[in-house]
Amino acid sequence: MKMISNCLRQRSLLTTQILSRFNSTAIEPATTPVTEDQVAKTKPLDHPDYFRVHNLFTVKDLFDARVHYGHKEGSLNDFMRPYLYGSRLGHLIFDLDITAEHLRKALNFTAHVAYRGGIICFFNRNALNAHLVEKTALESGEYAHTRFWRGGIFTNANHQFGAVTRLPDLCIFLNTQNNILNQHTAVRDSAKMLIPTIGIVDTNCNPNLITYPVPGNDDTPSAIELYCNLFKAAILRGKEERMKFLQDNN
Amino acid sequence: MYYNNFKMSLTIIRQLVPPAKSFCVNNIKLRQPIVCNLYNYSTKSPVAAGSDNVLNNLTDWETLSRKKKVSKAMKAYLERAQAHDEFMKTQQFEYAIGKRHLANMMGEDPETFTQKDVDRAIEYLFPSGIYDPAARPLMKPPEEIFPARKAAEFDEAGRPHHYLFYTGKPNFFKVMYDAAENIQQAYVFEDKVIRKKATPDPNSSLNLSSSVWVTKDQLEQILVESITDLEYDNFKLVMERLASLPYAYRFKEFIEKFRKPLGSQRFALEIPKPSYDDDGRAFVTTYECLRKKARGDVTIRSPGTGKITINGKDLTYFDDVQSREQVLFPLIFTGMQNKVDVECNIEGGGPSGQSGAIRWGIAWSLRSFVDAEMLKQMQVAGLLTRDHRRRERKKPGQPGARKKPTWKKR
After folding, report:
1. How far is residue B38's CA from residue B22's CA, in Å, rounded to a whole number?
2. What per-residue confidence (pLDDT) applies to A118?
3. What pLDDT digit, counting tens, does each position of A60-119 carry?
4. What is the rounded average pLDDT for all residues in chain A?
5. What is the C-alpha separation between B159 and B162, in angstroms, rounded?
């Protein structure tokens, strides 16, 4: 543990985050909490976890929120195979260590985007959870789109909105599918417009075009609630830091 | 601090290629001095320690407002908004002046000249035979004529104000979100009440009988957005659901926003008050009692004995039973046959037409002496409906109005 925390302080060891998988039954957060003065010294982008979002959840939280449940074996998308732990009684189970890994990266990225004043747009096409997602967006001061996606919103924005529009700087998909058969058009459109995306990918989803895929359950309300809370917390932390910084420098 | 960076950057400008146009088609890059652009693009440029560079790297609206830089989009919007505001101001000024001129023309007081007076004056001065009211000359305040526009939907940094901006119809979907939120809150409240074993207050419940949901066009006007039929149907479904909940009265304001009151009830304003004659008896006269070719008037005097006078004669004015029954029917139906006196003058037509006209006249006058419940029953019985049927003309080639010569198959 001491060795790893020493290693983490060096810049070049961003790639050794994977080592945190050594204990697959870990219920502790993988990174050690960093002290205040260390945070202040490094620049935000150099630090592996400037906003300490890794402390926001544990693997046990993911398990309790039923994030590890996938769909049935028959609907498995081949690209999702590396994220699976196995299957039980025909139902696929995600490997929560991998999920935790991806989720940490995603939250870190979200916090950084919020720190820089970026526009974040939440997407969800599941009628069961859409209201909660809109509420999360409202409370975190960001944007949401849980309705029918009109063709040219990203690719033909100036024409659609009448004026020169600024597009989102980050798209968070809490559900990458439009319906059972189709992927949400915004995934492809974000890739076209070079907008980074974070997506909760279930076993029947295609993670290819998503910048920061987070393999996990995208249907259960408790899982979506957990994701919403986490993203909201990350965004609010980023914004808090930003306000603090601007006040210091004004 | 800013000046130091500027000096440093001059050396870098000589080395590096000047940056490309800072405006890409769909993503607006906010206009900044070249210094900041350089720091954004190249991560390997010599970085000075401290927070200076971090500040230059941040492209946020606070620093923008300090440097007073406005994005192209914002500039374009501001120009358009200014032009529109000036236009509306001139229109409003012209309208106000025109209204006063119109009042002077009509010889009325300019201070108390209402919109209704304006409409009347225009109709008088510019009589038009055009069928469609919207095509006739009109003079209305400019806000009604020129359609409402949306204000700037984004701030200086390009961030939209409304959190549902990217859906394209933020106001509409905000309404849907609010309705869903209210439904959920209503359920939560209901659970609380049940847990406390209380019952809903019977007095405070929503009365929606005298109003209807706004139409699609009206909703489009309220929201300043266009809506598809499907979306409008969904909207109605959601609002119906909300209104049907037991605790919907807690969201009365929200629901009332989208309800239009029906036209005022037919009789509420129209029932005349009885006048009083020399003996102090209340009476009501109905003129223009018509049926077929008969024309007449009917007077009902209230504290009476059931006397009926037709053209100075008794009920025996009519020879046949049916006509007499027609005259008596409204009195018997309301139970006033011994309580009022009837006086009528009738001319034209035959027995059927005259008796029908008198019957309607009696029923119409009895409205003033009868309560609301009986009034409704009279309406249901058809006593208060004017019978507009007239004799249909005979057509050429036929023996009668409808009768045709024998139909032969071949």
Report:
1. 11
2. 92
3. 999 999 999 999 999 999 999 999 999 999 999 999 999 999 999 999 999 999 999 999
4. 86
5. 9
Rg (C-alpha) for chain A, rounded Å, is 18
Which of B397, B363, B405, B368 lies closest to B380 in space, CA to CA?
Answer: B363
B35-43 CB contacts, 8 Å cutoff, 24+ apart: B35/B5, B35/B6, B35/B9, B38/B9, B38/B12, B38/B13, B39/B9, B42/B16
Quote the CA–CA distance of A135 and A234 in Å, as a whole number: 16
Q: Output b/e per residue, B15-32; b: 16+ Cβ within 10 A.
A: eeeeeeeeeeebbbbbbb
Question: ∠B171-B230-B180 over CA atoms, to 5°?
Answer: 50
Q: For residues B378 and B338, give the distance between their C-alpha atoms in angstroms, rounded to a whole number.
A: 18
The count of C-alpha atoms lying within 13 angstroms of the C-alpha of B173, restricted to the half-sphere facing its C-beta, is: 21
Distance from CA of B255 to the nearest CA of A (A): 19
Site from A131, A160, A166 to mutate, B interface, most B CB atoms within 10 angstroms: A166
Mean pLDDT of the region A43-50: 87
Predicted TM-score (pTM) of this structure: 0.64
Q: Are A151 and A192 in contact (CB under 8 A)?
A: no
Place of tokens 């929503």: B206
Q: Please give the interface size between A and B, counted as residue pairs whose CB atoms are below 8 Å apart.
A: 87
Assess B27–A contact: CB distance below 8 Å, yes or no: yes
Residues of B in contact with A138 (CB under 8 A): 163
Give the model confidence (pLDDT) of B209-253 as tens digits.
Answer: 788 999 999 999 999 899 999 999 999 999 999 999 989 999 999
Alpha-carbon gap, residue B55 to A242, rounded angstroms: 11
Residue with tokens 């008050």: B273
Give B90's pLDDT tier (boundaries 50, 70, 90).
very high
Beta carbons of A234 and A115 less than 8 angstroms apart: no
N- to C-terminal Cα separation, chain A: 41
**Beta-strand relationship, B259-261 and B282-291:** unpaired
Nearest-by-CA chain B residue for A247: B62
